[in-house]
Structure formats: structure tokens, C-alpha cells
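Quiz preparation item.
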């Protein structure tokens, strides 16, 4: 109850224009708070203390009346006294021995480091650099430690000139490249171009898009080379090697005419296939061609066999003729016997010419009759029903 009463009394004093916490000049505000005699007779304030009154003493002395703190007092307390004041809590640079600031020295050090970093260049063994003075090309830098004017007066661009760069045509995201051959057929070709930088200055400043230029030059050279070949030549190893060499030479001539500063190292054909729409028909044609080649090879083999046999017989006849010239009668009789033997050996008749002998003797037939025939024994199960039927009849 007392707490509630004090609360209502303080609200009433506040509405009357008086502070419920007492005055700021040390007057007593306890009790009624409006008795001047009581207030003038006491030096120490009575009653509850104002919580908003700062504990900072006035500038006139530590024993004087207290007053509320303001923003100026807070910043004076925190910022005054350099870095050694009792109320210091902010960040500040230390002073030099002469009392000067370190800020100019720090700025000069940062500028010196920036100048040194942009003026010194270490070029790798496979690299070269181009120097541009205010945006214009002036010179090139060789491998090693090189120096230039600081940025932005001179800028240096470093490129790898010895490394092999690879360009695949068509790219994985591009469509199929169909090329027309010399015999009016289409072939799907994919190939790889390997190149590097021959002259860095020309490579950087002669062409706007060097890589795109290499791709277009390779495609133009490949179409021109394939147009001079037939379809079957693009599928064979020898034909591919010829195409790769031709494309490389054409590309190098084109890029040299542009002064591109590019060296073509090689071209490799990865795939040479017919278009996907005619793959089945193309395979059928290949099968038919293979069958035709097999038939031709078989005919050539038979012709060579017949020719070899004829040549052998001709050589044998020449030898017989030489013997015939030496002994005509003997050779004639011998030829007759050999001929008759060869003919009559294939017939089953024997003809003899002798006195008292029948002119025709069927010797093969007699030989067949003289051969005893194998006896045929009846099967046992076949006789059982006959015996049973005979017994039944009896």
C-alpha cells in the first residue's frame, strides 16, 4: 500500500510542475517539497535521488552541484587527450617522435608498393608479354624478369606462346558437320586442330577473335580438301592422312595471309561416317560391294587354277613331242595304249581279240555272280504266329 501511495504522490507532484526526485541544485525535495525554509537550511538533498542526474561533477569543482550529462561531455570524455587520456577508448594512430602523424608515411608506403608491383613482371619460360603504353602497343617482353612504367602508364598482358591449344570441330554443343565429297556424297566429319602462338603481337592486335578465326579457317580448308576426294578415300587410313596434311597446309597459308601470328601444329580426323539418315542404306551398299569383291576374287582364283593346269599340260605335251620326234613308232604305240587304258578303265565291258575266244566276255557280270550272296535268316517273332495257327488247325 505504501508503494502505491508513493507512486500516486509522485504523479501528483509531476502534474503540479515539480520534480518528484528533488531539485538539481541540492535542494530538498523530500516530504512536501515546497517548504523554502526547510530547503534553504539543508546542504544535502533529501528524498529519493533523480536517476537522470549524471554522476559527472561540474567543471567548477568536485564539490559543486551535479548536473545531467550531455552529448558534448560524452565526446569530450572519449575523444580528448589523444590516446593517453583516462577516458580514451577510441582508435588513434601513434605519433612520431617529432609529434607528427604517421598517415603521410603510410600513404607513401602504399604508393611505393603499388608502383613496384605494377612495374616488375616475371615472365615464365613458355610465356611472353606485350607492353601497351597508354593503350598503344610498344614492345614485347621475353621470358625472365622485366620492368615497365607503373600502371596506368604502361600495362602488360602475358600469354602462353609455347603451349599447344586444341580446337575440336564440331564442338560438343554444335550440330553435325556434313561435307560434300568429290563424287557428290555427304560425309560426317569431326576433327581436331592443334595450334599455338607464333607471333604474340600479331595474335593480340591483328585479329579481333583469334580462336574463331582458327575455327573458320579450319572448316574452309577441310571442305576444300574433302571436295577433292571420293567418299571411299575419306574412310581409309591413307585417304585420311592425305586430307589431314592438305588441311594443315591450307590453314597455315590462310592464317599467314591474315598475319594472325598463329602456327598450325597438326590436324587429326577423329570420325568419318555417312550421315545418320542414310546409315542403313550405306551399310547395305558396303555389304553388296564386299560380296562383289568376294565373287571377283573367287573368279580370279579359278581362272588362275585353270591357266596353271593348261600351262602344265602344254609343257607335258612339249616333252612328249620331243620324244615323239626321236622315236615316232614307239611313241605312237605308247600314246595309243595310254589312251585306250584311260578310256576303257571307265567301262564295265572287256573286249579281247584272240583266236578261239568269244569276242565279248561279260567279265564284270561273271564276277558279280561269282560273289556269294549273304544268307537271309527269317526273324523269330514272325514264325510264332504261324506255329500257333497251325496248332489251332490241328
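Solution:
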Amino acid at each position: 500500500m505504501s508503494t502505491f501511495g508513493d507512486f500516486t504522490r509522485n504523479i501528483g507532484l509531476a502534474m503540479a510542475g515539480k520534480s518528484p526526485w528533488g531539485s538539481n541544485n541540492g535542494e530538498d525535495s523530500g516530504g512536501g517539497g515546497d517548504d523554502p525554509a526547510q530547503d534553504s537550511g539543508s546542504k544535502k538533498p533529501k528524498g529519493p535521488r533523480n536517476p537522470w542526474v549524471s554522476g559527472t561533477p561540474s567543471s567548477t569543482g568536485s564539490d559543486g552541484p551535479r548536473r545531467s550529462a550531455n552529448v558534448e561531455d560524452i565526446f569530450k570524455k572519449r575523444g580528448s587527450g589523444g590516446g593517453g587520456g583516462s577516458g580514451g577508448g577510441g582508435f588513434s594512430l601513434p605519433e612520431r617522435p617529432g609529434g607528427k602523424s604517421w598517415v603521410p608515411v603510410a600513404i607513401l608506403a602504399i604508393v611505393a608498393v603499388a608502383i613496384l608491383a605494377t612495374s616488375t613482371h616475371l615472365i615464365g619460360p613458355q610465356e611472353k608479354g606485350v607492353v601497351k603504353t597508354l593503350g598503344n602497343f610498344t614492345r614485347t617482353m621475353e621470358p625472365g624478369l622485366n620492368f615497365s612504367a607503373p600502371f596506368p602508364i604502361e600495362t602488360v598482358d602475358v600469354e602462353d606462346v609455347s603451349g599447344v591449344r586444341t580446337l575440336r570441330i564440331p564442338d560438343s554443343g554444335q550440330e553435325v558437320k556434313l561435307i560434300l565429297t568429290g563424287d557428290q556424297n555427304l560425309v560426317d566429319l569431326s576433327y581436331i586442330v592443334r595450334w599455338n602462338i607464333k607471333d604474340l603481337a600479331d595474335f593480340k592486335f591483328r585479329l579481333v577473335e583469334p580462336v574463331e578465326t582458327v575455327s573458320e579457317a579450319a572448316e574452309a580448308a577441310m571442305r576444300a580438301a574433302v571436295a577433292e576426294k571420293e567418299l571411299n578415300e575419306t574412310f581409309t587410313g591413307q585417304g585420311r592422312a592425305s586430307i589431314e596434311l592438305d588441311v594443315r597446309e591450307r590453314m597455315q597459308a590462310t592464317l599467314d595471309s591474315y598475319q594472325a601470328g598463329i602456327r598450325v601444329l597438326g590436324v587429326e580426323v577423329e570420325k568419318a561416317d555417312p550421315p545418320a539418315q542414310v546409315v542403313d542404306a550405306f551399310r547395305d551398299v558396303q555389304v553388296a560391294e564386299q560380296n562383289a569383291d568376294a565373287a571377283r576374287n573367287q573368279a580370279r582364283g579359278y581362272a588362275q587354277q585353270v591357266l596353271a593346269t593348261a600351262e602344265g599340260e602344254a609343257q607335258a605335251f612339249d616333252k612328249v613331242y620331243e620324244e615323239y620326234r626321236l622315236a615316232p613308232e614307239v611313241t605312237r604305240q605308247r600314246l595309243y595304249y595310254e589312251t585306250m587304258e584311260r578310256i576303257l578303265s571307265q567301262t564295265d565291258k572287256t573286249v579281247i581279240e584272240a583266236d578261239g575266244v568269244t569276242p565279248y566276255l561279260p567279265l564284270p557280270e561273271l564276277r558279280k555272280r561269282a560273289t556269294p550272296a549273304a544268307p537271309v535268316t527269317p526273324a523269330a517273332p514272325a514264325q510264332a504266329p504261324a506255329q500257333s495257327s497251325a496248332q489251332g488247325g490241328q
